[in-house]
UniProtKB/TrEMBL annotation:
Active-site annotation: 265
Locations listed in the record: Cytoplasm
The protein's name in its UniProt record: NADP-dependent glyceraldehyde-3-phosphate dehydrogenase
Gene3D superfamilies according to UniProt: Aldehyde Dehydrogenase, Chain A, domain 1, Aldehyde Dehydrogenase, Chain A, domain 2
Predominant place of localization: cytoplasm
Pfam family, one: Aldedh
Catalytic activity reported: D-glyceraldehyde 3-phosphate + NADP(+) + H2O = (2R)-3-phosphoglycerate + NADPH + 2 H(+)
EC number: 1.2.1.9
Top-level enzyme category: oxidoreductase
Domain annotation Aldehyde dehydrogenase: ranges: 25-484
Length: 497
């Protein structure tokens, strides 16, 4: 892939890729690379540059210069370039999707969908940015008690400066552009640090912005080991905003980064609460979709089912029948269950299964694993003392906890360290709203599995699930600050000549 078509500039050798700085594709002075391992083969698929701290400094220096000019660029021109980038992304969806298949084992059809969705996100962001940022607010002083009509305040939105964007492995293109596009339309510069697993598709995505004609230095992409440049990036004095999606690392970043605006989407233990009057066929279909798509490697995946005892047997029966029909195999073949991203992830998932089984849970399917490929398992009769009741597996295993009351289900949901999303299944809208109000989580879906999109909806978590609200309009506003200009008029005693 590295040496084909419009992406030739990225190549630094066979399946080795450069990083992007000052509008150019470059090899690191370190002369070192980082391996990207194919989850399916467990062999090295690609190599990316191991950037140095000096190269990070150079990236931020060029970003600062480029941002000053970009902030003065008319909104319509910013939007025009974003539309071009979106078109480029869709035009080159095939090679980018191929990288997603090889480096994160995303099923082929889903990989193409991610790229196309990312193009749509960029275009929507361009239009929304023009609407949001093209308006100011005019305030008169005499609207406050005791004040005369002698001051006029014009409040407008201006960029923060340089935004550091760090997406996760599972959606390295979509969750990168969900950060990059709002930052750019708002007038900021962007430094992107892609995940190692997902770096190559991320680099190809950045090249689409390059082809669209964005100014040199405005968007950069650095790759490397987190142990060498991770903290250096997140604590860099030139960072004016951090947008991060991932796991526990985000908590560490938040503690170290200091006084910069942050947008953090972290882990989730998204609960599915099933009431006695629920449409169980609908519930079962959504549990499969929500719990097992992309092998459960989604922040918004259903991570625990809390079902009323009276309907638990029937629901488990329905879900088991659907689990049996899930195809298991390689992402190139569009299998529904594909290898999880790393061997360490597979080992962690296996530990959760073994812990539950040892403590008395029922495995509805025999546990089976080949390398990073884990067959889907529904785990019934899970108790609070089991790790799987609380920990986020990020794999194709799903615990079922049988509860006696709705209050018990709500309590379990709220006792979690996470609070990203949840869902409720019932035919009683009054009960649904009552439970939604009681659930301490960022988003609650009624009669549907949790989902991030549509991408213009607000999306946020509480507790260890993150800070700041995402969704295109929210992201644009978070990446700006208010600038007030006050015109002081003559006092009331002043008269015209």
């Amino acid at each position: 892939m590295a040496g084909t078509g419009v992406f030739e500039d990225l190549a630094a050798g066979e399946d080795t890729f450069k990083f992007y700085s000052e509008g150019k594709w470059q090899e690191s002075a370190s002369k070192k690379t980082v391996n990207v391992v194919n989850p399916s083969t467990q062999k090295v698929q690609y190599k990316v540059q191991a950037c140095t701290q000096d190269e990070v400094n150079a990236v931020f220096a060029s970003a600062k210069v480029a941002q000053k000019a970009w902030a003065k660029t008319p909104l319509w021109k910013r939007a025009e370039l974003l539309h071009k980038a979106a078109a480029m992304l869709k035009e080159h969806k095939t090679p980018i999707a191929a990288a997603l298949v090889k480096e994160i084992a995303k099923p082929a059809k889903d990989a193409v969908t991610e790229v196309v969705r990312s193009g749509d996100l960029i275009s929507y962001c361009a239009e929304e940015g023009v609407r949001l940022l093209g308006e100011g607010k005019f305030i008169m002083s005499d609207s406050f008690p005791g004040t005369d009509r002698n001051k006029l305040c014009l409040a407008s939105k201006i960029p923060l400066g340089t935004v550091l964007c760090i997406p996760p492995f599972n959606y390295p293109v979509n969750l990168a552009v969900s950060k990059i596009a709002p930052a750019l339309i708002a007038g900021n510069a962007v430094v992107l640090k892609p995940p190692t697993q997902g770096a190559v598709s991320g680099l190809h995505m950045v090249h689409c912005f390059h082809l669209a004609g964005f100014p040199p230095g405005l968007l950069s992409c650095v790759t490397g080991k987190g142990s060498e440049i991770g903290d250096f990036l997140t604590t860099h004095p030139s960072v004016n905003c951090i947008s991060f999606t991932g796991g526990d690392t985000g908590i560490s970043i938040a503690r170290k980064a200091g006084m910069v605006p942050m947008q953090m989407e972290l882990g989730g233990k998204d609960a599915c609460i099933v009431l006695e009057d629920a449409d169980l066929d609908l519930v079962a279909a959504n549990i499969i979709k929500g719990g097992f798509s992309y092998s459960g490697q989604r922040c918004t995946a259903i991570k625990v089912v809390l079902v009323l005892e009276s309907v638990a047997d029937k629901l488990v029966e329905l879900v088991n029948a659907k689990v049996a029909k899930l195809s298991v195999g390689m992402p190139e073949d569009d299998a529904q269950i594909t290898p999880v991203v790393t061997e360490s992830s597979a080992n962690f998932i296996e530990g959760l299964v073994k812990d539950a089984e040892t403590k008395g849970a029922t495995l509805c399917q025999a546990y089976k694993r080949e390398g990073n490929l884990i067959w889907p398992v529904l785990i019934d009769h899970v108790k609070p003392e089991m790790r799987i009741a609380w920990e986020e597996p990020f794999g194709p295993i799903l615990p079922v906890i049988r509860v006696k009351t709705v209050e018990e289900a709500i309590h379990h949901c709220n006792a979690s360290q996470f609070g990203l999303q949840g869902c409720i299944f019932t035919q009683d809208i009054n009960k649904a709203m009552f439970i939604s109000d009681a659930m301490e989580t960022g988003t609650v879906q009624i009669n549907s599995a949790p989902a991030r999109g549509p991408d213009h909806f607000p999306f946020q978590g509480i507790r260890d699930s993150g800070i700041g609200t995402q969704g295109i309009p929210n992201s644009i506003l978070l990446m700006t600050k208010t600038k007030s200009t006050v015109i002081n008029l003559p006092s009331a005693s002043y008269t015209m000549g």
